[in-house]
Amino acid sequence: MSEQPAGPQTVLLRRGEVHSPADPFATAMVVERGQVAWVGSEGAADAFADGVDEVVDLDGALVTPAFTDAHVHTTATGLALTGLDLSAAPTLEAALALVREFAAARPADRVLLGHGWDAARWPGGRPPTRAELDAATGGRPLYLSRADVHSAVVSTALLDLVPAAVSRVDAPLTADDHHAVREAALGALAPAQRAEAQRTALAQAASLGIGSVHECGGPQISSEDDFTALLKLAGELPGPRVVGYWAERDVDKARELGAAGAAGDLFVDGALGSHTACLHQPYADAPHTGTAYLDADAVAEHVVACTEAGLQAGFHAIGDAAVAAVAEGVRAAAEKVGLARVRAARHRVEHAEMLTPDTVAAFAELGLIASVQPAFDGVWGGEDGMYARRLGAGRARTLNPYAALLRAGVPLAFGSDSPVTPLDPWGTVRAAAFHRTPEHRVSVRAAFTAHTRGGWRAIGRDDAGVLVPGAPADYAVWHTGDLVVQAPDDRVARWSTDPRSGTPGLPDLTPGTGLPVCLRTVVGGRTVFVRPGE
């Protein structure tokens, strides 16, 4: 940790609402030496007032566990915040104008980076040509990733930095070609530019009540230097915490880099938006079934190696064929090393969007963590969304079945995959509770748990992500409206304010209502964010 002011050893927070299973009526909390020491009522808080170093008057604010975002690309998130954001560009012409302005404003950058374009939303539906990008940048290296980060358009000057084997086709680059240009673009970053991006991303997370992020790095995603620099930076800052996963089938390399697992975006397939997710049946709008990067045998080999090394394995799998390959591979690994050892390792599957009843049951049997991103449904779900265009409405309605996963006992850990979708924890909880497909909805309480305690469970910690005595003092303070208990089933009351239920309330997340505003974020008892004016 860096040399930061030690801060008060013991803090009493009072006159608020404390979300804790230890006491559904709690209004006060004591934090001591980075841990929750006590949670209880206002009357009992008087007994602590004289023995603490600081008393914080919450003035009715809500205190919750800090969120954990279980899938983040930190440097890319920071670059999206500090770089060119094309997500709001309404047309191709508008996007090119933004590229020209950005290039003019960043004359010293060795490479220009942008993110978020989606030609499917533009009139005409076509991405920019290489000639258009060359003209907009004045011939400088440029990398623009699509919204799903599984394809990109680049300028000629960037192509000149990659091996000749990379395709020169004038179209978005996918698969290995995309990985090569992304590696070249990120490799051209100056260390100062990278550090600026990482600090910006972590500060943004803290401002949203996020106390931990799971960094999903790897040789096809970032670089070893990027990964180790981020872990070093996180160790020097008071927070948020960063847990790193390295997506390479090399257990020794993952351990050498300080990763919690050889996991994260270890690609079994690609993404639906780029037609690279691996399907059992062809796409509705393309005459193929996507791309398979790993088969069940490769999955099994990796799971065995990680289990025997005491590390988590994990895979990026989106299409139904890819998810089935993971399930088959993990089951084969369990037959070799034992089911109990595989379950105890809490291996992870990132995204896991196209599930069937059989793969849901396999996840439960094998103890797999489903690291999922509810905002994907919010952005791409629905009868007219990208999922329906790629798969047809029938298959699209099966995606992201969170209720079925929970009913089967599969642990959920929520994240954003930022910068694919933004860091937005309450928006993520809302997206799960108000899923575009009603039968996949879960309660706000279950969604909130998946975005707080679920992330800790996904790294093997069952004692954190909840405000009870002995837990790490990772919490956020929120300005919000009335607290309610919301359920996803329209056959019963969707919300209740009855305190007799004994269930701690949470903010009303009904679509159209304002989301809670973070006033303060604390990690390990140390304040990492205070909203200006508080």
TrEMBL record:
Pfam families, per database record: Amidohydro_3
Domain of life: Bacteria
Domain Amidohydrolase, residue spans: 54-529
Organism ancestry: Bacteria, Bacillati, Actinomycetota, Actinomycetes, Kitasatosporales
InterPro entries the record matches: Amidohydro_3, Metal-dep_hydrolase_composite, Metal_Hydrolase, YtcJ-like
Keywords for the protein's UniProt record, in alphabetical order: Hydrolase
Designated name of the protein: Amidohydrolase
Organism listed in the record: Streptomyces seoulensis
SUPFAM superfamilies hit by this protein: Composite domain of metallo-dependent hydrolases, Metallo-dependent hydrolases
A GO molecular-function annotation: hydrolase activity, acting on carbon-nitrogen (but not peptide) bonds
